[in-house]
Amino acid sequence: MALFDETARILENRQVGPRLWLLRLAAPQLAAAIRPGQFVHMRVPRMEAHILRRPFSVYAADADAGEVEILYQVVGFGTDHMTALEPGEECALLGPVGAVWNPPARGRCLLVGGGVGAAPLFMLCQQIAASEAQADVVLGAQTEAALVCRERYAEVLGAEPACATDDGTYGRAGFCTSLVEEALAAAQKEGAPYDYVAVCGPEPLMKIVAGLAEAADVRCEVSMEKRMACGIGACLSCVVNTVDGKKRACVDGPVFDARKVVW
Question: What does R_g of the chain's alpha carbons equal in angstroms?
Fold first, then answer.
């Protein structure tokens, strides 16, 4: 797939949760080309002293409106700077970059999003909902306020996703891995086991979910987040260790077969 270096215009940049912001951009080329699981490499406005672009997963895309949305978490200088970006400003987006999710055309799918990792799974949920497959969703976050994707998932699913919060303010108290384990077991007991699991979030979460899926003999894919410099496969700064050797998260991933990742 061709890469576009598109000048995008900021339409909206607002806080939606604790340290979580939603950036909405006019980017017609990328909105039409981006696929679930892929990301963009952004040159952040007013950060000329920092020559490297920053990778961001695409949360949602509207090809008809020519818009893309990025859900980002404030974790350092760059993302803190981004909170001051205003509508009308422009930024350069390079993309779409990376491998896509590979759900089955039919069958049952379980999507697991931890924290801001819920965002890279949302377009996949939309894709599955529009197909002959069925999607169930498990979301985990530290608090109810951090479950910022929950309502949009509910709109697509027609039902609330299963949720867990570390502090017990919404859904199951504790980690969402218990919900995953229960969902896999219940599906097996019902005689309608899952055919596919997709997970994105902190690496310990993905490792646990990958193990649960393997134990249940269910194909699982993970989205590996790594620090990136070039974002196009040239610098080898985002290496993921796999059974097939070292792979680049940017172009060989970020979506990987969980069975091939060396945790």
Answer: 18
d(CA 179, CA 198): 14
pTM for the whole thing?
0.96
Q: What is the dihedral of CA 257, 68, 96, 51, to 10 degrees?
A: -110
User: Could you tell me if 214 and 222 are in contact, meaning their C-beta atoms sit under 8 angstroms apart?
Assistant: no
Whether the CB-CB separation of 200 and 114 falls below 8 Å is answered with yes
pLDDT (tens digit, 9 = 90+) per residue, 194-231? 999 999 999 999 999 999 999 999 999 999 987 777 77
For residues 36 and 129, the answer to whether their CB atoms sit within 8 Å is no
On whether the CB atoms of residues 16 and 148 are closer than 8 A, the answer is yes
CA dihedral over 168, 170, 175, 181, signed as positive or negative: positive
On whether the CB atoms of residues 183 and 146 are closer than 8 A, the answer is no
Q: Cα 120–126–132 angle (5° rounding)? A: 130
Q: Where are the beta strands (DSSP E) in 32-165?
A: 39-43, 54-57, 60-62, 67-73, 90-97, 106-114, 132-141, 162-165
In this structure, are residues 131 and 65 in contact, taking their beta carbons and an 8 Å threshold?
Answer: no
Identity at 55, one-letter amino acid code:
P
DSSP state of 260: G
